Amino acid sequence: MMRKTKSTVNKVSRSYLDKANKFVSEGADKVSTTLERLNDSHICLGITGLSQSGKSTFVTSLIDQLINYKTSSLSGFSPVLEKRLIGVKLLPLRNKNIANFPYQYSIAGLKQQHPKWPSSTTDISGCIIELKLQKAKSSLNPFSKESFSLFIEIRDYPGEWLLDLPLRDMSYARWCGQCSAQFNREPRKQILGDLLPDLQNIDPMAPVDFAVLEDLRNRFVGFLEHCKAGERPLSLIQPGRFLMPGQIDDETLLCFVPFLKVGSFTDGQLEAAPKDSYFKVCEQRYKAYIKQLVEPFYKNFFSGIDRQVVLVDVVTALNSGPLYVDDMRQALSNISDSFSYGPQNRILQLFTPKIDKVVFAATKADQIVSGDHSSLVQLLESLVDHAYKTAQYEGVPPTALAVSGVRSSIEIEHDGVAALSGFDATGATIGYVHPPIPSFMPKNTQHQGFEDWKIPKFNPPIVSNENQAIPHIRIDSVLQSLVGDKCS
Amino acid sequence: MKDIEENASDKNRTGRQFEVEQPVKSNPKVRAGKDFKPNQTEKQDNPPQSIVTGERLPNLIDYSYLKLEAIPVRGLKRLAWSIGILILSLIVWDVYDTIAAAMSFHWLAAFSLVALSILVVVLGLITLYKYRKDRRKQNAYKTIKMLAERCVSASSNAADQRLIEELKSFYAGKPQQVLLDQCLSSLPDYALGHEVVTHINEVFLKPLDTEALKRVSRFSYQTGLTVALSPWVAVDMVLSLWRNIKMIDEIGQVYGVRPSMVNRLSMLKSIVGHLALTGAGELATDHILDEVGGASLASIFSVRLSQGLGVGLYSAKIGLATIAVSRPMGFIENKPELKSLAKLLVEQFKSQFKPKK
């Protein structure tokens, strides 16, 4: 009896000690980060991008360019140009609950004999890049330090989760209304098939049948998967966690669907719905989903961003057709409401962080000839018009660029026109000529050149030397725009 | 070159007709999407080179990327702060000295000075607080304008809600609140983005526009008439300035901008900016006069009356600029034009000054 009590006491005290230890270590990390932020030497970089926009490849390449700064081409990044970059180290995040960004794994894949693209992100990860920089010479202060460190914090996450951010300000009934409007239009209407009448016909006030709900949910997930992985992927896919759940303890959080008849009831009728009705059960789960998954994700990930790069895969959307371009614009517009832009002083930045620099990047620019990059940038500006104008209004002049984390093609002339040449997934040589990229959103008839023909996918280039940085397109511009001012 | 000159000076030219040969058009290759198998020379043998800032291809400069970043003079802010603190310290030091001197004279004098100093500080703080509050409110309609633009460009539930909240907060406690509430209560719950903005424009802002235009018309007529009747140029200037400022105040009030010095100055700044922007696009006064009145105007109006009409028209232009600036949302359609106001103004002048038969 005595022994049992002793062991219980030991267990409890150990658990409390562990908690206290964790609390102290987290507190120390927070203090350390806060001091660095106050000293202007810690920047949290928000890599924002929808699913398949190339976030992981971009982050991997960015780290690789910096680590191999001696062999990489970063002439647009002032510390490299002025030869003030002394060294670069990759550090884990201070928050031990977040996994390390799998840089080693991704770069090994990119630089092997048969290179492969980094795999899609399935959960949160992150890292800190420490840049050791030589200070710009000051003729006035003889006591100035010769070098200093700049810590760039980067976090990666599944792009699917990003689309949940707009749900934070949306009630379940409103979400159902939004789904109803979307589902009755192409291309979703066709993808939904039989599921559409089922979602339309079920009375949300009727008592819930959990087996039916489970079945609807599974079919709904199938629909979302089709939207994402179809030949022409859609962008506005909600709820994102249905596709990429991450670590979830309570599976019921992911068991709700939109009932399209909800719009025909008044707010009062919905409020008075029976507790065991489809509406109330799903509404409760929807609220829990927002509270337990979306809010913490936003709080931990996006509310502390100092600078942001928004990655947009314009080329794929353009290649899919006007409906898909419009869908992407809608998705980008929705998520941009979750970010606050504006210049902020260092002390206020600790409490109410605002994004004071933003770069909009059209990714996968290596899929088009370089002469069309400027058109691609103009097209990107019109796609992110909503966020672009907001940032401008708040006094943060945005930068728009055509970039590529990895340049996988070379430009050649084929039959008198500019073309691209590279390798496909099997390692075979492929080449293509693509229609000219328009600098404005094409009308339906002008879109045909792209819809009739699908851009083939290139494999990464073969870079056999480990110390050789992977070729890129304008990663130096991105770095300069985002952190160039903090490097002097 | 010599041949051409010789031909040109040839005297034996006879008249003849010939068909101009159409220049042979080069057929530029159109890029259509297609896949192909690269040949040996087109194959990617080595890894591609990076394309960096200012390049279109490696070693091919792209001039469109050429730009120089402004390098601000560092430390200006700190210098300004230091000067401010120095001036404040000197003031405090001087006040302290004065109080000490007064104390040596009589404690009552010192006490009065301390009380006065505290009163000045408190009044200063209150004024500063009010100024900042006013500025915040003034900025609210700029936020509304931006939100409305965003709602039109893309449907976003959060942006719609924010627009409505901002509108409610801007008009809270103002006579327009009742009208806004009525407008929002009739807003369909399915309305999104563009629909929300259109509804607010149609139901809430259109009646305000009518009222604002009425006032512009009245003020421009009055200003024109005063200038036409007044024989002194200096008086003309003062009168038109006074009437225009009054008009700006009144139009602002129609759209919910309270008349205060801060608001007036901010609006004047925006109006000047607006006029500078639209100046080139708007029709010139003379042109408008020609268009609305034709040649008959010259025969009806004397030089003074024409001057009055010109000033009236310019007042109308300022009035329209004020509407554009103080209206919480841009016009979706039927933007009021100077032409229609000018027509009305000329008619009023005609009926006022036409010689009776």
Write a brief structural summary:
The complex is a heterodimer of chains A (488) and B (357). Helix content of chain A is 41%, strand content 14%.
Protein architecture, described:
The complex is a heterodimer of chains A (488) and B (357). In chain A, β3 (99-100), α4 and β4 (125-134) form a beta-alpha-beta unit. Chain A is α/β, with parallel strands linked by helices and 488 residues long. Chain A has helices at residues 2-38, 55-67, 78-81, 103-111, 159-162, 172-183, 188-192, 195-201, 210-229, 267-271, 278-302, 314-320, 322-336, 346-351, 373-383, 385-393, 448-451, 475-483; strands at residues 42-49, 85-91, 99-100, 125-134, 147-156, 307-312, 357-362, 399-402, 410-414, 417-423, 429-433. Among the domains of chain A are: 1-38; 165-292, no CATH class. In chain A, the strands form two sheets. In chain A, strands 1, 2, 3, 4, 5, 6, 7 and 8 form an eight-stranded mixed sheet that branches. A three-stranded antiparallel sheet of chain A has the order 9-10-11, with no helix packed on it. In chain A, α12 (314-320) runs antiparallel to α13 (322-336). Helix content of chain A is 41%, strand content 14%. Chain B is mainly α and 357 residues long. Chain B has a two-stranded antiparallel sheet with strand order 2-3. The longest helix of chain B is centred in the middle third of the chain and has 47 residues, at 107-153. The termini of chain B are far apart. The relative contact order of chain B is 0.07. The chains are: A alpha/beta (488), B mainly alpha (357). The interface between A and B is large, with 71 and 41 residues.
Q: Which secondary-structure class do the elements of chain B indicate?
A: mainly alpha
Number of strands of chain A: 11
Into which percentage range does the β-strand content of chain B fall? under 5%
**Share of residues in helices of chain B:** 55-70%
Rg calc of chain A: 25 Å
Q: How far apart are the first and last residues' alpha carbons of chain B, in Å? A: 76 Å
Order of helices and strands of chain B: HEEEHHHHHHHHHHH
Please mark out the parts of chain A with pLDDT under 50 across 5 or more consecutive residues, or reply none: none
Query: Greatest chain-chain interface?
Result: A-B, 71 and 41 residues
Q: Over the alpha carbons, how many angstroms does the gyration radius of chain B reach?
A: 34 Å
Helix and strand run of chain A: HEHHEEHEEHHHHHHHEHHHEHHEEEEHH
Tell me the number of helical segments of chain A per DSSP (H or I, 4 or more residues long). 18
Number of strand elements of chain B: 3
